[in-house]
Amino acid sequence: MPYFNKYYLEFADTRGSNYRIDILDSVGSVPTDPYKLQGSTPALITTRLNENDNKQIGIIGREITLSYIYTGNANEPVPDDFFDAPERRFRVEVRINSVLDGVYYVKGDFSSAPYDAPPYRVQIKAVDGLAYTKSVDFDMMQDNLLYYDRIDLYEAAMTRGLLQVLDPGTKMNVLNSLYPTNIAAGLKMLFNVYVHTDNFFDFTTGPLSTHEAINMIAVNLRCRVFIEENTVWVVRIQDLTYSIFNIDQYTGPAAAETIEVDMIATAGPSISNDATPISTGTKSSQPGYKSVQYKAAYRSVNRLVNFDWRSFDGSSFEFWGGVEGIERRGTGTIADLYRAFLAYNFTNPGSDNLMQEVGFIQTIPPTLIGPAFVGDTLEITIPYNFINTDTFNIQLRIQSNNPGSVHYLSSGGSWIPGIASFVTIKRSKKKQRGSYTVITDPIPTNSFGTNNYAVFLSIYTPTGLVDFEGLATAGVEIFPVKLGINNSSSKSFVTKAVNAADYSKVNDEEPFNLFDNGDVFSANVLTVNPFGDHEPVSAWDSDKANVSPEDIEYHMTRAYIDQYSRSVRMWEGSMLSNTLKYYQLVEFSHIPGKRFLQISTTFDNENCTYTSMNMLEVLEEGNAELTYTEYDIEEEKD
Amino acid sequence: MQVIKGKDFNLYIEKNGTPTRVCNATDFILRQTRQTIEISGPQGQDQDFAAGKKGYTLNISGVVTYIDGFSFLDLETIFNNASRAVWSGRDLIEGGVVHTGTILLTNLDWASPVRGDFTFDCSAVGCGPKETLKLPIPSEVYLADQNFERLFGCPNPYPISVFWYNEDGTGQGDLLGIAHNQDDVINLFNNSIFNEYYLISAADTACDFNLLSNWDAPFIPTVIFAQATPALGSWTGRNNEGSSPNQNNSELSSPGYV
Predict the structure, then answer these.
(1) Which of B39, B52, B53 is the closest to A279 by Cβ?
(2) Contact criterion met (CB below 8 Å) for B25 and B12
(3) Cα–Cα dist B215/A330, whole Å
(4) Is A590 within 8 Å of B53 when comparing Cβ atoms?
């Protein structure tokens, strides 16, 4: 949306940098001259939002607090303008010595002003693009269709993620030494490792927020993501131990170069240091971890063709059988996805079905290309919307090339041999929308010596008539359907690293999402695509001597223990500086040999003072002595 | 040593854009403050500080008048309007060291004791920096003999010999050279090796000059010392033709003599 510069504030900080803060409005027309507001001390406070004192937080947003004096002048914005505005109406641009430093969006609900006669001080809070990503969905669409494919990590993080919020051309600086051993040397990791969009889309609830999507990638690589100097930084904590920092700078979807960045700042009593600690600092420690544990659910790629009802010729959906009176509804946007409408058949209710066969069976001669194997589990999600009906059936059938091997899915997820069975989906009272989701039991062995199965999914026209929706045509709308095959009998797996050192702290088990199980039909496996044919990433290596090639989930779990393999020093206090950057580590001249990572900061820009700063010591990669285990969980059912 | 007497240092506050003397003020006190930030840390047991913000306050007291200069009523007006006022403090009418800044009045008190005058007391806080301007001091000088008498022959005494001052500016010093007209005087004076602080320019007559003295000049001249010089090469009225540049008459520099 276009923004017009309406108001601005100017001040010089106590060390001579000139600040200009422009407040842009997306409502109204452009004024001839922006109006200069009278700033109030402190005019600008920059806060890093880190919810707890942990190095392992993925996304670290930034919030600013602006203050101006409202005198009652008609040209000044009344505080209510900000309080009542939607979150993206006002944009704030901060420039230091005429260089754009950050872009923020006013959050009215955080702003405050006294209930009093003017003049008084108004405080406006605004958040940067990263904090704002919580309200923006991951971009799952392309040409009005769900984009269901593998995309490279840059496209996932930036093109379909952050660039929806940040300005076009925003650069991304990545400090990461890990790379899959099956991509050629010198290739940029984010352009050559792929992730499936299925990870960012839930067939029942829709796309994830961009914040969740970025966090998923960040946590997987054990990186922190933040914006500094109007550039997105992705920094792998384990790589903060280099002496010279070479960073991949991504400037666009196909452009990247390696640059060297000064990432070490010194803090000490001399004015030549980058920061001067004020005499309030305290040194403390955070305990080491005994063990950390992550759990990942297996997630399969959808095997149905035209699952989102994209190809419709007016009477039938491509790859699906025909049904009388079938329609396609929706406009194909994320808010109004295409739906298959199965009308209530008054002559023969519930008799027709939409059917798709995954795999291929031919009895004479007996051949089978069946993608599902004994021991696999199937994952089905069918979102629906009842209209003046209350029941429809689905049927999931598996069959090898021997007709006697037919099994049907029961509503509980188990397999019934031989006898045709249906799963009946009933409307819950008057509620129209719903979703049927099941992860089946493992496919049983059969007595015919066949090992693999074709899968048949049938969705039947509705039965029970009701009159909850007035005159609307009775039927059921089926939203995009998922049928996946997990080449595993397990629902999920756990990775666990146990520290050999004696500590008692254990993390709460956390979820993670992307891994390397080698199965290209798994949606949450990372892939590479050197020859136009996706293959799973092999082990991840680094140019560091003490890093051996391992799966990404190993590196991720190891990184956690490495950084908390013993109690780590923490520094809290105030500092004077106007040159310290958030991406920089701090070395204290009186604590030689230790590097500290900035965790949360509150910076009074005008007085060049970090009024509160928390820092944690960074430990060497590979320093922990640990036991690593990975095991499957089979019992759980959805 | 130049001592500035308290009574000579005056406070002015702008009234309708014109600095106006607060002529009823009897005391004018400035307090400047500097905040400090302790940065001692682990480097030893000696305290160490970084500079924080600076500021200042003014305290003005005087007798209440309603009419003269920037009166009590004017103070009351800016107090009531909460308007910021531009002040300056100076010991000279024009030029010299001028202290200036912007203030907001924070207190305005009066007292009318039965046995004394009706007085006020006013406090103000500085808004922004207190600046110290170092301005040249303007004055007028004329060509004069050693007795500070206007030079004989003015307004056209040329050619003349032009002299610098003695150490404290109370009398004639070394010869600067011969001037045939007013421009020569200006050149000789402004470009003299003795001259560190002064700049003259032409004024109304060929004997009068405008002088700008630096704020830190050791003295402010009132005249330019000069002597009438014989008509060059033709004057024969005295034995030692020409003029003597220094006090012991050992050397003549008159071009007429050569």
Answers:
(1) B39
(2) no
(3) 84
(4) no
| The pLDDT of residue B244 | 46
Model confidence band, residue A110 (pLDDT cutoffs 50, 70, 90):
confident
Structure token digits, residue A240: 């903060």
Q: Which secondary structure element, helix H or strand E, spans residue A558, and what is its range? A: helix A552-563
Output DSSP code: residue A109.
Answer: G
Record: contact A279-B40, CB cut-off 8 A: yes
Distance of alpha carbon B122 from alpha carbon A205, whole angstroms? 69
Residue B231 pLDDT greater than 50, yes or no: no
First to last CA, chain B: 44
- Residues of chain B with pLDDT > 70, as a percent, come to 88
Encoded tokens for A422: 């249906």
Asked whether the beta carbons of A556 and A294 are under 8 A apart, the reply is yes
Q: What's the rounded Cα separation, in Å, for the pair A411 and A394?
A: 10
| Torsion of Cα atoms, A362 then A364 then A365 then A366, to 10° | 50
**Chain A contact probe: residue of B39, B40, B53, B54 with most A CBs at under 10 A:** B39
The partner residues of B3 in beta bridges, in order of sequence, read: none
A–B: how many Cβ contacts below 8 A? 29
CB-based contact A279 B41, cutoff 8 Å: yes
- For Cα atoms A395, A397, A398, give the angle at the middle one, nearest 5 degrees: 165
* Measured distance CA(A437)–CA(A482) in Å, rounded: 9
Residues belonging to chain B: 258
What confidence tens digit (pLDDT) does each residue in A440-465 have?
999 988 777 778 889 999 999 999 89
Q: Of all helices (H) and strands (E), which one includes residue A190?
A: helix A189-192
- Report the pLDDT value the prediction gives residue B230, as an integer from 0 to 100: 52
Contact A590 B37 (CB under 8 A): no
The first and second tokens of residue B175, run together, are 């010869």
Nearest chain A Cα distance for residue B171, angstroms: 49
Q: Strand, coil or helix: what is B144? A: strand
Is A505 within 8 Å of A425 (Cβ atoms)?
Answer: no
Report residue A107: phi and psi, to 5°: -105, 105
SS3 A550: strand
Q: Is the dihedral of CA A445, A449, A452, A458 positive or negative?
A: negative
Contact state of B37 with A14 under an 8 Å Cβ cutoff: no
Separation of alpha carbons A62 and A57, rounded Å: 14
The one-letter amino acid at A77: P
Cross-chain Cβ contact A277/B48 below 8 Å? no
Q: pTM to 2 decimals?
A: 0.85
- Does the distance separating the beta carbons of B39 and A277 come in below 8 Å? yes
Q: Which among B37, B39, B53 is the nearest to A269, CB-wise?
A: B39
CA A580, A585, A589: angle at the middle one, nearest 5? 85
Show the tokens assigned to A258.
């390696």
Q: From the list A279, A590, A609, which residue is nearest B38 (CB)?
A: A279
Q: How many Cα atoms are found within 13 Å in the side-chain-facing hemisphere of A256?
A: 20
Helix, coil or strand: residue A486: strand
Chain B residues whose CB is inside 8 A of the A278 CB are 37-39, 50
Q: What CA–CA distance (Å, rounded) separates B73 from B108?
A: 11
* Residues of chain B contacting residue A268, judged by C-beta atoms under 8 Å apart: 43
B41 touches chain A (CB under 8 A): yes
**Residue B39 in contact with partner chain A when CB distance is under 8 A:** yes
Question: Which of A281, A576, A590 faces B37 most closely, judged by CB atoms?
Answer: A576
Can you state the percent helix, strand and coil of chain B, rounding each to 5? Answer: 10, 45, 45
pLDDT at position A191:
95
Residue B80 CA to residue B104 CA, distance in Å, equals 11
**Can you give the C-alpha Rg of chain A in angstroms?**
29
